[in-house]
Amino acid sequence: MLKFFTLRNLGLLFIIALLAFKVEDTRHKNDAAPKWEQLFNGKDMSGWTPKIRYHDLGDDYKNTFRVENGLLEVRYDQYDQFNETYGHLFYKKPYSYYLIAAEYRFVGEQCKGGPGWAFRNNGIMIHGQAPETMKKDQDFPNSIEVQLLGGGGNGERPTGNVCTPGTQYERDGKVITQHCTDSKSKTYNGDQWVRVEALVLGDSLVVHYVNGEEVIRYQKPQSDPVAGQQEGTLLKSGSISIQAESHPTDFRKIEIIDLEKYAKDPKKLNQVIAQLMSQKRVAAQ
Q1: Using alpha carbons only, what angle is made at residue 83 by residues 77 and 84, rounded to the nearest 5 degrees?
Q2: Domain 35-277 - what CATH class?
Q3: d(CA 89, CA 112)
Q4: Which is nearest to 235 in space by CA: 151, 140, 126, 157?
Q5: Predicted model pTM
Q6: Domain boundaries, given as residue ranges, for the chain
Q7: pLDDT, position 117
Q8: Using an 8 Å Cβ cutoff, are 72 and 250 in contact?
Q9: Which long-range contacts (CB under 8 A, 24 or more apart) does 38-45 make?
């Protein structure tokens, strides 16, 4: 009888240990870093809608945004003159807490009539207004711009900068109202691929990375103030778009990790961010 109970107890212990192992294994799987979601599928512009200045939402009258050879392209071969027809391509849904990445390169010659500052210039617009609310002649959506710049081969021109059409932000406790602020990234000349990421945490923090290196961070993204106020309304979420500012650009990847489910758990959010940013992601050439 004693032998019987001993064997039975050993069996129960084995089953308990096996269940504990499975629970622990499940926990490890749940602790795995969240996966990238591809906003650009490499085949077409599903989920994206163009807005070209002076034209209705969805009317890309000169085929500015297109997909060819697996690339999302910004092109001007059907333009005679640029005529300040700034364009934006909006993703279908807004985001609040997330890590977004784009791999891009500048190619070819700037469109005739494009402004000098727009040479090798594009951007990822975050915390933007809904495209449906843009006026027909509006040049840029109210948003925070993660500015993408290419070098001209004749001096320093960092990328991953921050610009503020209709917005502002705080940095080191001070409200920053100047339109663009340079990052500390190096200059990328030629047609090389560059990876830019932006960590966006609601209305609290934004951090830009270029090829795995932090290049600038700032706090409290907000709309431009009104009625003589110093601070505007904090921006907790908004649209995402890419630009067409007169220079041909290729995007081979636009991807995102949605961090919204961690927004109310700061400890877990910080753990996930630390895990994600422990990897140095660099664009392959």
Answers
A1: 105
A2: mainly beta
A3: 21
A4: 126
A5: 0.89
A6: 35-277
A7: 98
A8: yes
A9: 38/253, 38/254, 38/255, 39/91, 39/240, 39/254, 39/255, 39/256, 40/72, 40/251, 40/253, 40/254, 40/255, 42/67, 42/70, 42/252, 43/67, 43/70, 45/72, 45/89
